[in-house]
Amino acid sequence: MNKVAKLLSVGTVRSEISQFAATEWGITQRSIDRYIQEATVILKQDFDIDRRQFTAEVLAQYASLAKEARKSGQLTVALGCINSMAKVGQVMS
C-alpha cells in the first residue's frame, strides 16, 4: 500500500500504477483499484491536519527555502518565498 501511496504522491497516474502493479506484483485490476483507493486514504490522512499547523509547516518550509536561496545568491527566489509567506500569513488573520 505504501508503494502505491508513494507513486500517487509523485504524480504517477492510474494507468502507470496499474502497469507497475500487474508487472511487479502480478495482481488483478480489481486488486490494483482497491490498492489505489486505500493508498488515497493514506494520503488524505497525511493532510488531515489543523489549518494552523499546516500554515506553520508551510511557513517553515518557505523560510528554509528563502534562507537557502539567499545563501546561493538567488535573491529573486528568496523574494518569491517572502511574498508567498506574506500571502500565507494573511490566511491566519
Describe the main β-sheet briefly.
none
**Low-confidence runs of at least 5 consecutive residues:** none
Q: How many β-strands, per DSSP?
A: 0
Enumerate how many helices there are, as a single number.
Answer: 5
Order of helices and strands: HHHHH
* Oligomerization category of the chains in this entry: single chain
How many discrete domains? 2
Rg: 19 Å
What number is the mean pLDDT?
A: 91
Alpha-carbon distance between the two ends: 39 Å
Helix content: over 70%
Question: What class would the helix/strand composition place it in?
Answer: mainly alpha
Beta-strand content estimate: under 5%
Label the overall shape. elongated
Question: What attributes characterize this protein structure?
Answer:
mainly alpha; elongated; single chain; 2 domains
Describe the 3D structure.
By secondary structure, the protein is an all-alpha fold. The chain has two domains: 2-46; 51-92. Helices cover 83% and strands 0% of the residues. The chain contains five helices and no strands. The protein has helices spanning 2-9, 14-25, 29-46, 51-71, 75-92. Helix 2 (14-25) crosses helix 3 (29-46). The radius of gyration is 19 Å and the shape is elongated. The protein starts with a helix and ends with a helix.
